Amino acid sequence: MKHPLHVASEIGELQTVLLKRPGQELENLTPEYLQPLLFDDIPFLPVIQKEHDYFAQTLRNRGIEVLYLEKLAAEALVDKSLREEFVDQMLEEGRAEGNVSHQILKEYLLSFSNEDLVQKIMSGVRKNEIETGKSMQLHEFMQDHSPFYLVPMPNLYFTRDPAAVIGDGLTINKMRETARRRESMFMEYVVKHHPRFTSHNVPIWLDRNYEFPIEGGDELILNEETIAIGVSARTSAKAIERLALNLFSRQEKFKRVLAIEIPKCRAFMHLDTVFTMVDYDKFTIHPAIQGPQGNMNIYVLEKGPDEETLKITHHTSLTESLKEVLGLKDLVLIPCGGGDAIASAREQWNDGSNTLAIAPGVVVTYDRNYVSNALLREHGIEVIEILSSELSRGRGGPRCMSMPIVRKDI
Ligand SMILES: NC(=O)NCCC[C@H](N)C(=O)O
């Protein structure tokens, strides 16, 4: 039987992908909560849904199977006790302060059908939804400012980050930001309980209980032997080391990890916001991540003398490191916004470097990044543009919005 997960490159023909359609969770964004919930503006729900549907249809038109996280999660929770366990865990990790008990919230959530239960947990529970029958004291009013009993998860449409397929297994990620911490629980339940995945013993290279954070936007599979991981605002060096050790001891194929250090700032939150692979020898890059001589900090992690030790070498040239690990004589780094200081900063902010390769030399990008798109085409890349007015407000592009489940080997 075909393995349900398989990704051994960034550019191999995409066969199955996981998306999440933006939903009611976005209607729970208010100006006060934008920053903690990692948004810069409030998307207009009917339009963002239309844009997202267009994205999904664009992928289907290319023969790609599109799965939805919300549907898989609902299908995974068939068992009554599993539903209860899931709700308990969600409430334990995400219940906001308030005068409602765990039990009342649990009963409220369990009164929904599976699909609505998943949607409700994703969108959050507003305080005015539940009649607690208990009057609040003044000090409770004062402490209890949040309008939610359960905080919404508006970043779920960025399916790339909470989990990432590597080879025939995956990482289920410990998310750096509180606003995204519970997101990886959906994929944990899906992989452990959905029949599509339980037929195989899917290896989990790193799970969400690991102490140090890692996010999928930082995890890039350069080829069947090499992974690049951003050391970023979201992904810690400790998690990269642990993942490398686990991979080297539990499987044969991946032999090295390139830890690429990027500036730790909001605009460059993950490696894939500043660097993506678009063809065998072509990459997009935001010029601002390189120093004046094009230098950066890159660490190559390889198997060490024993299972708990890594061999680590330091490099400063991204081009040379990539050439070496990919066995290339030459390669092209295509600058986001063409390298013009203003176009490059503007288009990077709207995810101009965040391309989703669906085959070697074929990428999906946002239509608004016209300078970067034209440059990709000049380099012989087929660029499929999608609508981006509302989708881009969450600060993620086509790669962030997609979790490849199966790619053909190249
Ligand atoms: N891989 C990515 O760069 N994902 C984009 C995530 C955007 C989201 N608002 C966040 O701050 O986590």
UniProtKB/TrEMBL annotation:
Q: Name one GO molecular function term.
A: arginine deiminase activity
Q: Which residues form the signal peptide?
A: none
Q: Name one GO cellular component term.
A: cytoplasm
Keywords tagged on the record? Arginine metabolism, Cytoplasm, Hydrolase
**Where is it mainly found?**
cytoplasm
Statement: the UniProt record of this protein carries the keyword Metal-binding: no
Q: Name one GO biological process term.
A: L-arginine deiminase pathway
Query: Active site annotated at which positions?
Result: 400
Coiled-coil intervals: none
Question: Has UniProt tagged this entry with the keyword Cell division?
Answer: no
InterPro entries the UniProt entry points to: Arg_deiminase
Give the superkingdom in one word. Answer: Bacteria
Q: What EC number(s) are associated with this protein in UniProt?
A: 3.5.3.6
Q: In which pathway does it act?
A: Amino-acid degradation; L-arginine degradation via ADI pathway; carbamoyl phosphate from L-arginine: step 1/2
The record's subcellular location field reads:
Cytoplasm
What reaction gets catalysed by this protein? L-arginine + H2O = L-citrulline + NH4(+)
PANTHER family noted in UniProt = ARGININE DEIMINASE (PTHR47271:SF2)
Which protein family is it in? Answer: Belongs to the arginine deiminase family.
> What is the name of the protein in this document?
Arginine deiminase
Which source organism? Answer: Paenibacillus kribbensis
